[in-house]
Amino acid sequence: xxxxxxxxxxxxxxxxxxxxxxxxxxxxxxxxxxxxxxxxxxxxxxxxxxxxxxxxxxxxxxxxxxxxxxxxxxxxxxxxxxxxxxxxxxxxxxxxxxxxxxxxxxxxxxxxxxxxxxxxxxxxxxxxxxxxxxxxxxxxxxxxxxxxxxxxxxxxxxxxxxxxxxxxxxxxxxxxxxxxxxxxxxxxxxxxxxxxxxxxxxxxxxxxxxxxxxxxxxxxxxxxxxxxxxxxxxxxxxxxxxxxxxxxxxxxxxxxxxxxxxxxxxxxxxxxxxxxxxxxxxxxxxxxxxxxxxxxxxxxxxxxxxxxxxxxxxxxxxxxxxxxxxxxxxxxxxxxxxxxxxxxxxxxxxxxxxxxxxxxxxxxxxxxxxxxxxxxxxxxxxxxxxxxxxxxxxxxxx
Length: 398
Prior knowledge:
Helix content is 35%, strand content 20%. It has helices at 12-26, 31-42, 78-89, 109-114, 116-136, 191-212, 227-239, 253-263, 302-310, 332-342, 356-364; strands spanning 50-55, 61-65, 97-103, 146-154, 160-169, 171-173, 180-182, 243-247, 274-278, 281-288, 294-301, 321-325, 379-385. It has a 5-stranded antiparallel sheet with strand order 8-3-5-4-12, with helices on both faces. A 3-stranded antiparallel sheet has the order 2-1-13, with no helix packed on it. It has a 3-stranded antiparallel sheet with strand order 9-10-11.
């Protein structure tokens, strides 16, 4: 008996195509959320156009549709991630690296939903200022620290969980650039003290935003528009213990790159976590960190699933990966060169952008230019077609 054909795995784009139109009609979405749904639904379909290739040996035809390149699309992040890692590799120093996570309390989630640009920017600012304050303190390092910060807005079940992952070299550049000030092995800064300073800086920033009138209040947080109510809300947040978590240091630069590869271009949910789409029900896997990292499955209505996914669509143009300190874009080249000189480290080996086909071959071992039919010829571009146009027939001109 012949084996039953395997079912194609469900993808986020399938859910968007099936249920996105209803969500867009029945829910008030931001322009960025509308764009994300349109892009993901159209990704690698005739809606975005594409090209036709033909094998130069057997003549086999292949039609390839264009990618949407939206940063929230799980299918479009792999190559972007790998190209980004090439730039990060050149920044690494031969020192211990630390992973510090700054997390906002969930009480701020409703305010963040109406003010994502303001509250996300404050998260970067407060974390950067906190690490800079401790780095400048001679009781700790006494110099300029540097680092990379990556914004994540989601938890495993797609609920809002605002946190910042920071990768920080274990040391600082002296302010007069005369020395590299190395951190104690296995220790950067005390996390409880970090959490208190972070809380103070963040809430001070929120109060300044309120005083400037840059915060919007609607829906469930409309009552916070009143100054007394807002100050009471801030006071409540101040009584909570905020979480700053420092993980054990990385084993070396290779582990740093592996980590960055997992985190820099991650989206709220990847296609490999999706189990199935049954009518209007979506099942997906999630990891329960509170119970030994057990992998469980969750079922949500498609509307609720997309609502949660859309919580994590960033404001247009918002930069979710930022450098600070001696790794900040301004002055980074000179300061990094000075750090390497002080550490007696060789200059980084840099290379130009890797072509897409070569990059895919390096990552997967698959040569996408070779014909999969005869396995002897090469695919050659023969036609390009515009969005919403079907490819024209390719005539045999041999």
